[in-house]
């Protein structure tokens, strides 16, 4: 269960049909354009999927910012086996943000996520980065995602 139902719920309104990335394909994250890495796909304007990770984000209103992170965690914990979360401080576009390191069991093994939320470039955003290995340092975060989300500066 690599992609949880919550991601589908959060991004349904913004989703477009999947496409294979071609040279020069870009996504916009908090008003900044980024070139999608070769071999990755843009699942929507707010989701990039690569072989060993995927990254999704949703822009929040001040009202949804108050409740959305807790709702996401609650729904995830009810849908997966051996759900664990650890509160962390991290950075979105080098701005301090709140977040969680999350792990849970799937048929393929343990899945790891970073969930971060806060202001980034004057935009409220919630980011989910799904990885096949535990992110312990910034080096464990793929280079594309590391432009947007980091554990330390």
Account of the protein in words:
The chain is built from 3 helices and 11 strands; from the N terminus they run αββββββαββββαβ. The chain has 153 residues and is of the alpha+beta class. It folds into 2 domains: 47 residues, no CATH class; 96 residues, no CATH class. Strands 1-4-5-6-10-9-8-7-11 form a 9-stranded antiparallel β-sheet, with helices on one face. The longest helix has 18 residues. The N terminus is likely disordered.
Observed structural traits:
153 residues, alpha+beta, 2 domains, two-stranded antiparallel ribbon, 3 helices, 49% strand, globular, disordered N terminus
Quick take:
The chain is built from three helices and eleven strands; from the N terminus they run H-E-E-E-E-E-E-H-E-E-E-E-H-E. It is α+β, with helices and mostly antiparallel strands.
Oligomer: single chain
Beta content: over 45%
Helix content: 10-25%
Largest sheet: 9 strands, antiparallel
Enumerate how many helices there are, as a single number: 3
Given the helix and strand composition, which structural class is it? alpha+beta
């Amino acid at each position: 269960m690599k992609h949880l139902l919550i991601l589908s719920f959060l991004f349904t309104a913004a989703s477009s049909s999947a496409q294979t990335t071609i040279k020069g394909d870009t996504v916009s994250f908090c008003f900044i354009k980024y070139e999608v890495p070769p071999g990755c796909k843009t699942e929507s304007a707010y989701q990039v999927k690569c072989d060993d990770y995927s990254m999704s984000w949703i822009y929040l209103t001040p009202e949804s910012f108050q409740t959305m992170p807790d709702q996401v965690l609650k729904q995830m914990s009810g849908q997966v086996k051996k759900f664990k979360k650890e509160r962390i401080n991290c950075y979105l576009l080098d701005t301090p943000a709140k977040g969680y390191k999350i792990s849970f069991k799937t048929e393929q093994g343990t899945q790891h996520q970073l969930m971060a939320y806060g202001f980034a470039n004057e935009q409220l955003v919630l980011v989910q980065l799904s990885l096949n290995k535990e992110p312990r340092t910034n080096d464990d975060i793929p280079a594309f995602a590391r432009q947007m989300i980091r554990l330390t500066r």
